[in-house]
Structure formats: structure tokens, C-alpha cells
Amino acid sequence: MTAPTPETPAGITYASAGVDVEAGDRAVELMKASIKATHNDSVLGGVGGFAGLFDASALLGYTKPLLATSTDGVGTKVAIAQAMDIHHTIGHDLVGMVVDDIVVVGAKPLFMTDYIACGKVVPERIADIVRGIAEGCQIAGTALVGGETAEHPGLLGEHEYDVAGAATGVVEADRLLGPERVRSGDVIIGMAASGIHSNGYSLVRSVINHAGWALDREVSEFGRTLGEELLEPTRIYTADCLDLIDTLNTGSAMPVHGFSHVTGGGLAANLARVLPQGLMATVDRSTWELPAIFKLVSELGSVPQPDLERTLNLGVGMVAIVDAASADAAISRLNARGLVSWAMGTVGSITDAAAASGLDFVQGAKGVDGGAVLMQGNFAR
């Protein structure tokens, strides 16, 4: 038998390889209460099982239930959270990115799972992340039924982590929303974003690094530090969208035709995905003012407006497409719930002039051969 050498020490353990199983167990104990707060009578079992269980008996009341699923992460926004050592807001971001994709088709998100990969398990940090996910799930009315924390020493730095999540929802087949319901004359309703949300942070971080701005820099336009502004959690629209559906789409009437979640690619590209071929949404920029954080990014980095619009939400996090006769009622309902909303455009036919208008015209996006969007005018001041 070959004797151990300094290069091959005796007794290599999982812990000496960089994985702390006990720390993982402590993290689970710290997060249990947050997770349980999201559970309802449909969730079976507690935390720690191999699989989360959800009682699907309610689906028996559907004529033809369609399951909707989505998965996502929060991108390089985690770098801001790690630099500031603030971790619970990332959980809100994760939930919003996942469940608000599901509600776009009119589905109610039922349950969610999460995955956290890190260089080193710090129980309190992991518990903070999961606490934020649980808080986001409560806002969305979604149960957090399971998750996984994986320690990856050597692949991620000691203070680095990434998060991802997946959720499943349900919608009755004849209540499904989407391009097939959109008609010429429909009104486009914008719903205000809470900030940058969780897309475009590679651009944003590049801009602030180039400008030499520190995250702890106080910015008068924000009334707080730059870092605090950048960590503003993604607004979660699920409950508002479901309320709008429940309020307006009653009986055989379905004036709410669809939603668009404004994430990577910006407003025009995401709106085009939920329009049918041959129709175009004309969006009037003058109907809203560009929030301060987007003005700052634009000015600090001399970022061209087309690039801003292809990357960031620019103040609009969700869009509803509604029959014109119900647009005022929809806007009133959303505003009554505390969600600033407004009419920002209409749906019509694609014209040759629009198609030839250049960068302001988007047709087909993210692999969807759908409708088109024409951005017009200048932002309000």
C-alpha cells in the first residue's frame, strides 16, 4: 500500500473537500417556518421529503384543466445582493420571474420549488434567500412545496450563489388567454414596474462600473443608495392579474384577452409574443414617464434608447390586452388595488409604413412568429 504524501493527504472527507453537510441541515431548520407559512390544505407533508406533495383534488372540478409550468432565475442581480450582503429580496425576484409567466395565460400558480447553488453554505444566508422566496409565494398565493440547496466548492466562490425556481399552475381550457383572443381595437394597458426587476443587470452593472459609482452612493433622485435602488424587489403581478380575470371575465364574457410579462427583451419584444400574426400594437411612450433609475442608466452609460428598450422594462412590468369597452373598468380595478396602470396603446393591423419604420418596429420575438409592436413618441417629462 502506498503511504500518503503531502500531495495526497490521509483521510480526505466531504468536509475537507469543501462541503458542510451539517451547515446544510442548519439551513433547513432555519427556513422551515418561512416555507410552512406558504402552505395550505393542499400541501401534504412537511419540509425535508424527497418530493413535495400537492393534493390535486381541486382539479376534478375542472372540465378540461390545463397545467401551465415555468422556470427561471434572476440573472446577475445576485451579484448586487452578494456585494451588499442583502439576500432576502432575491427571493421575491425569483418568484415574480416564475409565477408571472404562468399568469400570462390566465393560469393560477399552485405550487413552486426552488434551487440554490452556492460555493459555501452559510445557513443564515440560505435561510434569508428562502425567506424571501416564501414571502413572494405568499404574495402570489402559491405554495412553496420543496427545494434544494447544493454546495459547489471550486465552482463558485465562498460568497457566491445562484438561484432558480419552477412553478406549476392550472387554467380551464376554455378560459385560456393568448394571441387567439386578441382583436383589432383592443387596448394595451401598462402596469407600473417597481424598478429594474430582474433583467438587464449585465448592462446595468457594466454602466455603473464604467462610471465608477459605488453601491453605497447616496442618490438624491432615489432617496436612498444606488445599491438599495438596484435591489428593489421585482413586483409580483399574479394576484392583480387573477383578480382582473375574476372580475371581468365572467360567464361567457371574456374582455381580458391576454397579458405580457415584460422581462428579458423589453416591452416591445415581449408584447409581440402574445399578439397574433397580422396585428400590431401601437404603444405611445408619452403615456408614461421614464423612472429615475432608467434615466440614470441611460445617461451614465450613454446607452442608446433602442438598446435600453431591448434590454430593460423601462417602468412597465406587465401589460394587459383588453377589449376597448372594458379598458376603463380594468384600469380602475388595477389602480384600486394600488397598482398604477394606464392605457398605453391600441391593437390594429400592421401597415407598410410601420414595418418600414426601423428600430421602433418589432415583429416576432423569442422564437414566436406572432404579431408586431410599434413604439411611438417620446417619454413624458
From TrEMBL:
Annotated PurM-like C-terminal domain residues: 183-348
Gene Ontology CC terms: cytosol
Catalytic activity: 2-formamido-N(1)-(5-O-phospho-beta-D-ribosyl)acetamidine + ATP = 5-amino-1-(5-phospho-beta-D-ribosyl)imidazole + ADP + phosphate + H(+)
Gene Ontology MF annotations: ATP binding; phosphoribosylamine-glycine ligase activity; phosphoribosylformylglycinamidine cyclo-ligase activity
Entry annotated with the keyword ATP-binding: yes
GO biological process: 'de novo' IMP biosynthetic process; adenine biosynthetic process
Pathway: Purine metabolism; IMP biosynthesis via de novo pathway; 5-amino-1-(5-phospho-D-ribosyl)imidazole from N(2)-formyl-N(1)-(5-phospho-D-ribosyl)glycinamide: step 2/2
The organism's place on the tree of life at top rank: Bacteria
Main location: cytoplasm
Keywords: ATP-binding, Cytoplasm, Ligase, Nucleotide-binding, Purine biosynthesis
Localization in the cell: Cytoplasm
EC code: 6.3.3.1
Domain PurM-like N-terminal: 64-171
Protein family: Belongs to the AIR synthase family.
Cited NCBIfam families: purM
Protein name (Swiss-Prot/TrEMBL): Phosphoribosylformylglycinamidine cyclo-ligase
Gene name per UniProt: purM
